[in-house]
Amino acid sequence: MRKRIHIVGSPGADTQMLLSLMAAAYQYDDCLMGSESLFQYGGNERRGSLCIGANQSDVNLIEEPFLRDQRLYVIYMARDPRTSVSLVANDRYCFDGQDWLTSDRFATEHQLHPRLCIVKHEDLLRFPVMVQDQLEASFQCLKRVKGFDLTRVAWEAQAGSVDWRMHLPRVKAQLNAYPELSSKLRRYCYEKDDEWRLWFEGVEAEDEMITRKGQPITEALYHWWIKHRYYHQRHC
Q: How buried is residue 9: exposed, middle or buried, by Cβ count under 10 Å (0-12/13-18/19+)?
């Protein structure tokens, strides 16, 4: 049965941009475009040796299938947590620090696994050649057709760019609420020292109420079902 490479990531990481680049740069038999979940078709197989896909939110479900399915390879796309908590849609912030930490748990716990490759959203935009070399060094099944061409996705990347320094009260509040985020900045080499904290001098943290909702039992049962459907159709 064929191998699958699936891209997941931090909240706000542009997994679709990476998938578009890979779809143009490598040989494959099937590509699940359009943010299709790994579990949408239950792992249903067609002929061929390689399928690629991407869905950022699959990161919260992928750990068990990743460990169980020896033909599943995962790319985790990290994004600066300060940027993630600054993303806005419909005049509201999209993610908080807990969303970022929950997603990052998978990458942190399995960072040395041979079927996991961790790349940074920012590196892809600045150093696409380096990221492409990193992917090919991690996954020998990738057969290059051409190099990554960022010109075809540059306008999308430009539209999605956010400067967290324009959201200092929000970022300071999130760092106060989730202090572990600060250590992650060094782990992913976003910062090498604490000089970045000078941005927050004299800034008052945004007054916000942070609440976490539990997972409804119906949602938990659905997640159990789609994962086990995947195991059945992948024979793993």
A: buried
Query: Between the CA of residue 205 and those of 72, 80, 175, 215, what are the distances in Å?
Result: 42, 19, 9, 29
Give CA separation, 49 vs 8, 30, 131, 236, in Å: 21, 9, 23, 17
- pLDDT tens sequence across 13-46: 999 999 999 999 999 988 877 778 888 865 556 6
pLDDT tens for residues 159-213?
456 789 999 999 999 999 999 999 999 999 999 999 999 999 999 998 765 555 5
Measured CA to CA, the distance from residue 36 to residue 234 in angstroms comes to: 17
Question: 72 has which bridge partners?
Answer: 4
Closest CA to 72 of 109, 100, 45: 45
pTM: 0.90
Between helix 168-177 and helix 180-187 the angle, nearest 10°, is: 100
Torsion over CA: 148, 140, 51, 68 (sign): negative
Task: Return the closest-CA partner of residue 58 out of 107, 119, 9, 104.
Answer: 9
H helix runs in 11-147, sequence order = 15-25, 63-68, 81-84, 97-109, 121-126, 128-138
Task: Extract the runs of DSSP E, i.e. beta strands, from the chain.
Answer: 3-9, 30-32, 50-54, 72-78, 88-89, 92-93, 116-120
Residue pLDDT, tens place only, 110-169:
999 999 999 999 999 889 999 999 999 999 999 999 999 887 665 555 545 678 999 999
